Amino acid sequence: MFAANEMRDSAARYNGALQAAYFIIAIRAVGLAAGPMIGFDDAAVDSEFFPDTTWRSHLVVNIGTPGPGAWFDRLPRLSYDDAVHHA
Questions:
Q1: Nearest to 36 by CA among 13, 70, 62
Q2: What DSSP state is assigned to residue 68?
Q3: What is d(CA 2, CA 5) in angstroms, rounded to the nearest whole number?
Q4: Percent of the chain with pLDDT over 90
Q5: Are strands 33-37 and 60-64 parallel, antiparallel or unpaired?
Q6: H/E run at residue 82
Q7: pLDDT per residue over 4-30, tens digit each?
Q8: Of 5, 22, 39, 64, which one's alpha carbon is 20 to 30 angstroms from that of 30?
Q9: What is the mean pLDDT of the chain?
């Protein structure tokens, strides 16, 4: 279906982003920490891990056990009156 479709790359990236989100939710659901990162040298990662394939990296996720004091309280949020103005 996608063989001649020019939208296939954007559809694949969108679907990959959804799958990455589910992956991160699953990691956190079992009590591990997940640190997704973009902005890495994707060409270097692709040549190191997928040298003889057509696969390409989308993001890198650090996975591990959180150390002591890894989490902090939620930062303060704006109140409704500060954030909403009726016109």
A1: 62
A2: T
A3: 5
A4: 55
A5: antiparallel
A6: helix 80-83
A7: 777 888 888 889 899 999 999 999 999
A8: 39
A9: 89
| Residues counted in the chain | 87
Query: Could you tell me which residues are beta bridge partners of residue 33?
Result: 64
Q: For the whole model, what pTM was predicted?
A: 0.66
Residue 70 · residue 25 · CB < 8 Å = no
Alpha carbon distance 24, 38 (integer Å): 14
Map 5-64 to HEC letters. CCCHHHHHHHHHHHHHHHHHHHHHHCCCEEEEECCCCHHHHHHHHCCCCCCCCCCEEEEE
74/8 Cα distance (integer angstroms): 39
Tokens of 69: 């004091």
Token pair belonging to 16: 């990959």
Calpha distance 87→84 (Å, rounded): 10
Distances (CA, A) of 49 to 14, 35, 43, 80: 22, 19, 10, 48
d(CA 44, CA 51): 10
